[in-house]
Amino acid sequence: MRKYFGTDGIRRIANTELTPNLVFNVAKAGAYVLSKHTDHTPTILIGRDTRISGTLIESAMVAGFLSYGANVKLLGVIPTPAVAYLTRKLKADASVVISASHNTYEFNGIKFFSNKGMKIPDTLEEEIEEVMDSGKLDNLTAVGDKIGISEYALDLIDEYVYFFRKNFDDDISKYNRDDFVVGIDTANGATYSVAEKVFKVLGIKYKIINNNPDGININENCGSTHLDGLKKFVVDNKLSLGIAYDGDGDRCLAIDEKGNEIDGDKLMAIISQNLRTKGKLSKDTIVATVMSNLGLNKFARDNGLELLQTKVGDRYVLEEMLKNGFNLGGEQSGHVILLDYNPTGDGILTSLMLIKSILEENKKASELGNMVKIYPQVLINAHVNPSKKYDYENDKEIKDAIEKLEKEFAGNGRVLIRPSGTEPLVRVMIEGEEQEYITKKAKEMAEMIENRLK
Q1: DSSP-derived secondary structure for 281-300
Q2: Helix (H, G, I), strand (E, B) or coil at 40
């Protein structure tokens, strides 16, 4: 079990758990692991979101990189996908995003990206941990003229804006309408400034909220994790669409003109149809995780598409896409990967693909959203003995109960059991047509698992 890295980098309470000393060590070890095969002085990019601890973590990270002998370009407040894009464009050796994504402001985190602009695999994170705890760090200290230097490169955000202009200007201007107005909620996060620049340069009419970060209001009752404010804003202002980003800008959820949510499953369905009509959906396939709604599965089946499902985590979606040449994948949370453009989830990119679909098809957001019937979903945590949380797979009573329920659903429901990666929990997720019934069944299943795996 890994000591520092979790399912999405390192994420902890800033300055007490994610201390400057820990950050320094992670940076130094990370610089070594990610650039040890290069024959030149490595260059590493650093971007961050708006939380108050960002500059503290950034300073410790810069010190660690420079101490190793790496050079640093500081990008300032910038979305995660912009860092990924710039890493490839500038041919940097690696990059880091300092963000805790959708978490509240007291958290912060560290995500490493390779020179290909992709989150590094589990194996490299494990190697970084080994170096941190091996006693080698003192030997990785640059001296004299080998010490690294840092520079601010805040203007590189304009390269990211140009990326959208280059890819969307023609299509948006061709189909744009005067009565099409979008509400944007930037979660007081990393997209607070750049999203507005992108919408302006593309000529998309918009009204923007939650774009005044103060260091502690990131994700506070706003953004993709708190949609009620945007729903009201869209309906009250009679807007065509609402777009909500998360704290670091790699996710996007939407609200149709009636105030209904368009989640990641619906976004993938809408985008898949738009790509397929142009012959651009690779192998007519969507890659999602096991947590995607049964409705997406039925949409794919009814429309002659293949739906492949991976374990939970955008990195596993990306791995499957790269392995088999697919170009569309993502998660229900709105983390959508469009591999023809960027090798990571990109909230602004996802929102523009949605807008392009709406404008090109000359339909309302609600019409496109209705392509997928979302089945009610219930998730209950069963508290178990930590040493037994994988035993459910071989427990006959639990297996029989799952099979019996799935037979009863007859294709109109689903049972998914999976252990937590970090806690003594087994998660019970059930989908079906009736909320009350599946809630009852999920509670019963969780209780059985708790009793069997004490």
Answers
A1: SGGGEEEEETTS-HHHHHHH
A2: coil
Look at the chain and count its residues.
454
Q: What is the pTM of this model?
A: 0.92
Angle at which helices 20-35 and 54-68 pack, to 10 degrees? 40
Number of other CB atoms surrounding residue 146 within 10 Å: 10
Q: What φ, ψ does residue 241 adopt, rounded to 5°? A: -165, 150
What residue type is 425 in one-letter code?
L
159-369 CATH choice from 3.40.630.30, 3.40.120.10, 3.40.50.970, 1.20.1080.10? 3.40.120.10
Residues 294/431, Cβ–Cβ less than 8 Å: yes
* Alpha carbon distance 283, 53 (integer Å): 44
Q: Choosing from 35, 67, 99, 101, which is the catalytic residue? A: 101
Instruction: Enumerate the β-bridge partners of residue 94.
Output: 44
Query: What dihedral angle (degrees, nearest 10) is formed by the CA atoms of 78, 280, 328, 76?
Result: -10
The pLDDT of residue 422 is above 70: no
Query: What's domain 10-152's superfamily in CATH?
Result: Alpha-D-Glucose-1,6-Bisphosphate, subunit A, domain 3 (3.40.120.10)
Q: Hey, where are the domains in the chain?
A: 10-152, 159-369, 377-452
pLDDT digits (tens, 9 = 90+) for 40-89: 999 999 999 999 999 999 999 999 999 999 999 999 999 999 999 999 99
101 classed as catalytic: yes
The C-alpha R_g of the chain, in whole angstroms, comes to 23
What values do phi and psi take at 313, rounded to 5? 130, 130
